[in-house]
Amino acid sequence: MEAKHHPLQRLVTKLSDRSALSEDDREAVLALPYSTRAKSAGQHLARVGQVPTSCTLLLSGFAQRYRLLADGARQIVGFHVEGDFVDLHFSMLHRASQCVQLLTPARVADIPKAAMVELMRSRPAVAEAIWIESLADASIVQEWVVSIGRRSARSRLAHLFCELGLRQEQAGLGSRCRIELPLTQEQLGDALGLTTVHINRTVKLLENERLIERSRRSVIIPDWEKLAEVGGFSSAYLHFAASEPTLSQVNCP
Amino acid sequence: MEAKHHPLQRLVTKLSDRSALSEDDREAVLALPYSTRAKSAGQHLARVGQVPTSCTLLLSGFAQRYRLLADGARQIVGFHVEGDFVDLHFSMLHRASQCVQLLTPARVADIPKAAMVELMRSRPAVAEAIWIESLADASIVQEWVVSIGRRSARSRLAHLFCELGLRQEQAGLGSRCRIELPLTQEQLGDALGLTTVHINRTVKLLENERLIERSRRSVIIPDWEKLAEVGGFSSAYLHFAASEPTLSQVNCP
DNA sequence: CGACACTTTGATACAAATCAACGAGGGTGG
DNA sequence: CCACCCTCGTTGATTTGTATCAAAGTGTCG
After folding, report:
1. Cα–Cα distance between B186 and B183 in angstroms, integer?
2. What are phi and psi of A103, to 5 degrees?
3. Does domain A2-123 have CATH number 2.60.120.10?
4. Contact B127 A125 (CB under 8 A)
5. Counting one residue from A and one from B, how many pairs have CB atoms under 8 Å apart?
6. Does residue A201 lie within 7 Å of nucleic acid chain C, judged by its CB?
7. To the nearest whole angstrom, how far is the Cα of A36 from the nearest Cα of chain B?
8. What is the percent of chain A where pLDDT is above 90?
9. What is the CATH number of domain B151-249?
10. Torsion over CA: B43, B51, A245, A18 (sign)
11. pLDDT for res B249
C-alpha cells in the first residue's frame, strides 16, 4: 500500500484516529478530487466576507485564524496544523467570518466544495468523522474562552504551550516537550488577548522560573507536569482517543 | 397538520431554517424516540466527566454551559435557548468537558444517543443540517473569544446584549430590542470574563448613556444601531439565513 | 553591511480586580 | 401579615495586572 504518500493520507489518518472508517470509506476520501499548491508565509487562505467554493486542507505548515476589529485590534481564534481543514465551516455556512493566514510556508490542497458535500452525503461514516473533528475543534475554542476570560497572563501562556505541545505530539510531529513555535510575541499576544510587551515579560518570567526554555523558534518544556499545573491544563477538552498516555507516563528530559 | 405541537417541532423548524429538509427528513426527525421532563432552575443537564448516553434537547427555558477552574473561578462558554441541543458534542466526543445548568425552569427532551446516530447515518440531509447548526454554534464561541480577548468591558456588554437580542428574535421569541434576561450580574461577569462589581458599574454606565434601559429581568435597547456600534457588533458571525433583515430595516421604539 | 522585523527594557497610565459594606427586593416561616 | 433571611444589586476606597508610550538592543536576511 504505497498510498502512504498520497497527499490526503494525513487527513485519512486523522479521521481514523477518532472514528472508525471502513476501507471503502478511506478510499472514498482518497478519491476526492483536489489540486495542491505551495504557498508562502503570510498568504491568506481565506478572508472575511469571501464566499468559498472549495475547501482548503493544510498539507503542511502552520496557520492562524483571526478577526480584525474596527480599531485595528486583532484576535486570533485558532491555529491550524497539517491535516486540518481550514475553512470547512465557512464553506458550509456560505461565508467566511474570519481570515485564515499562513504563518509558515505551506502546501495546501483545494477540494471542490461540491465534491466534499457529495462525499459526506454518500458516506455517513465519513460525514460523522469530519463532524466529530469539527466538534473537537470547537471544544478547543471553548477552552480558549476559559483561558482568556479567567486565567492570568502567566497561566494563559503556560496553558497555550501545553496545548500546542500536545496537539503537535498527537499530530505525530514530535514530543509534547519540544514545541516548534513559528509565532512572534505579537501573535502570541493576539492569541491570548494580551499585548506584545506583556507577553515578553511573561515569557521571561516563565523562563526565569525554569518552566520553559527557549532556543530560536522552539520552546522546550523541562517539566511538563509543572507547566500543566501552572496553566491549569487538563487535556480532557482535546478529546483525544482513549489511547492517549496519561500525563504521568510521559516525562521528557 | 397538527404536528404543530409536537415537542420536536421547534427542532425541525430550526434545522429547516438554515438547511433544506425534505418532508421525509422532517418526519424522520419527528419520529425520533424521546422522553420529556420538566426541570427546575439550577438543575444540571450535564456535568464534567460524565459519559452521556442520551442527547438533551432544550424544549423551553434558558441554560448556561460553563467550566470551573481550580481556584473556583467560573467561565461561561455559551448560552442555550429552546431548540438547542445542549450536549450533542459531548455525546459524540464520549465525555462531557463542561457543565450545563438551567437558569430558568425548563422542559427538556431526552433522545437516546443511539437513535440520534442512527438518524444521522440514515438521513444525510438531517446529519448535514445538525452539523451546520453546530458549526454556527462554534462561530458564536469564536466571537466570544474576540470579545473577551480584545474588547473593553463596555463593548463586551453591548456586544452580548446585541447577540442575545438577535438570537432571541431569530428564535421567534420577540424583538431584538427587548431581551428577556434571566441572568444575574454575576453570571454576566462569568460570561464576559469580568467581576460582578465591574459588570454592575458597566451596566449602569450603559444605562446612563441611554444605550439600554432596564425593567425587572428585561433589557430594552432604545437604539439598536447605536448599541451595535458601541459593541462593534456585526451579525455576520451568527450566520443567519440570508432572509435576515438588514440592521437598518429594523428600528425599535 | 545595512535594513527591517522582532525582542527587550523602562516609565507611566488605566481598566478592572479586590475588599468591604450597605441596601433592596422577594420569598419563607412563624 | 409581618419579620426575617438570603440573594442580588449598589457603592466607595484601594490595589494590581496589564496597557501604553518610548526607545534601545538583537538577529537575520538580502
Report:
1. 8
2. -105, -15
3. yes
4. no
5. 141
6. yes
7. 26
8. 86
9. 1.10.10.10
10. negative
11. 47
What topology is assigned to B2-134 in CATH? Jelly Rolls (2.60.120)
Span B157-186, pLDDT tens digits: 999 999 999 998 888 888 999 998 989 999
Q: Is A72 on the interface with B (CB under 8 A)?
A: no
Instruction: Please list the residue range(s) of chain A that carry CATH number 2.60.120.10.
Output: 2-123
Whether A224 shows a pLDDT value over 70: the answer reads yes
| Residue A19, C-alpha cell as written in the block | 472514528
CA of B184 to C1' of C23 (A): 17
Count of Cβ atoms closer than 10 Å to residue A53 Cβ:
10
Burial string for A3-19 (b: 16+ CB within 10 Å, else e) reads eeeebbbbbbebbebbb
Residue of B nearest to A234 (CA): B97
Spanning CA of B198 to C1' of D14, the rounded length in angstroms is 15
Domain with CATH 1.10.10.10 in chain A: 151-249
Answer yes or no: is A185 CB < 7 A from strand C: yes
Q: How many CA atoms lie within 13 A of A233 on its CB side?
A: 25
CA atoms within 13 A on the CB side of B184: 10
Task: Write out pLDDT tens, residues A156-188.
Answer: 999 999 999 999 888 888 899 999 898 999 999
